[in-house]
Amino acid sequence: MSVNNFTEPKFLVGPILRVLNRVRRQYIQNPVSTLHTLCNDVVCKMFRNQYDTDVTTWSPAGRLFQVEYAMEAVKQGSAAIGLRSKSHVVLACVNKANSELSSHQKKIFKVDDHVGVAIAGLTADGRVLSRYMRNECINYFYTYESQLPVGRLVVQLADKAQVCTQRSWKRPYGVGLLVGGLDESGAHLYYNCPSGNYFEYQAFAIGSRSQAAKTYLERKFVSFMASSRENLIKDALFALRETLQGEKLTSSACTIAVVGVGEAFHILDQETVQALINEFEIAGEEAAAPDQAGVDEPSAADDQAAPVDQSAAPMDM
Amino acid sequence: MLLGILGMNSLDCTPATNSLIRSEADSQRTLYPYVTGTSVVGIKYKDGILLAADMGGSYGSTLRYKSVERLKPVGKHSLIGASGEISDFQEIMRYLDDLILSDNMWDDGNSLGPKEVHNYLTRVMYNRRNKFNPLWNSLVLGGVKNGQKYLGTVNMIGVHYEDNHVATGFGNHLALPLLRDEWHENLTFEEGVILLEKCMRVLLYRDRSAVNKLQVLFSLCGIHTSRLLGNCCTV
Description:
The complex is a heterodimer. By secondary structure, chain A is of the alpha+beta class.
């Protein structure tokens, strides 16, 4: 008649036996500290370490683990890349859809005519921050009839993120933002991270497999400042292809957005992107291979990609 | 009665007599102006902006204060001139000082230019008018930023516009016709000053609240604002 009681011994046997064995071994070596480590070990079974419970706890090494975990969330999202020249900024990202049936998550947001943002990480957080940025731009324009300088927008964003690292009832935003925009002092690309830091970049990539893109960008970035708009987009597509690790780059798998002098922030439509991919022959190393291999390759890559997707939380994109 | 003597610009409003608006807080709202400045005149010239105003503060029909600076520089790029209630102008200067301070505290390469300041003031003036507590001024805002000249005006009810030549108060009636005839795109600095002096002379003849001491401010392309003070005695 008794209800299943989860404190019954049969549920706790495994962990307790393991701990007891360890304690026995430690006690033989050093009886005094055993009791202290026993408590720690039981607790540490549940957490990676004992200082990561909330964001307002420092570790003895001077780290805030919750903030670092939030930055891990950014690495789980699919890749987003940004590059800039003197007059243009290009944002590019990989579209990841949960299944073939669903549409892909929106990763690039227009914030104003002169600013746009690409996100990686928790898309819900990204959406909320984009709305905040749009609001700030609109309010500034209402008061001053001129565009909010990008440098000020990112500082406001960074300050907002910092607040979440210093309140016990909040958590850090789990999204990294590549903010690309134009103002009086030229074209700018910034990266805002969950820690509340922001950095200006010539080119940057965030999200999963972004290291491959960063390697490509590091090779080419010196020429970006003087690059033409077309070459900048070409480099963005090449960098994007690096993150796909051999998969074929098609316009359905990526999103590109551009902002520049005399050109308001806008997302390029699929036909334009596909035309650019074809023009620059960026499709993939297998472009030269026979069609059979081309057909098999994506499906094999998909199977490999699926386990990765399952380990990433559904809310991450 | 005070109002009749002041001879204010036709755009200025009579105080509200509607009892619906009257409240205990009446003593906190601006109902009439007390110490006032008269016209401000501004023009664009080849290299920037020129503003002129006399240095008088009238107390009703009495020409009480004769060294009131009604033209001030604002930030790195702008100039402001005010007619109307002097204390409200001082309040506006406080708002602008705070605004410029916050702008400077960003410590980045950006700064608020004349267009931004003009729009900010428009929002302030219009907001105050909507609360039936206006800042009793007509303002001229001009400046140069990145080679772009800007000249605009905003008054106590929030009416705002930009033009190549603007004036407040009596200047609208006496100075603007002169400027419409004689202003052109490529006035040199000397020509501009001569033109403004002509306007101020007519205002001295015909405006009872004008005094014979002038202040002229200019703003150059690429250079911070600078001032020259002129004392002009006419017979």
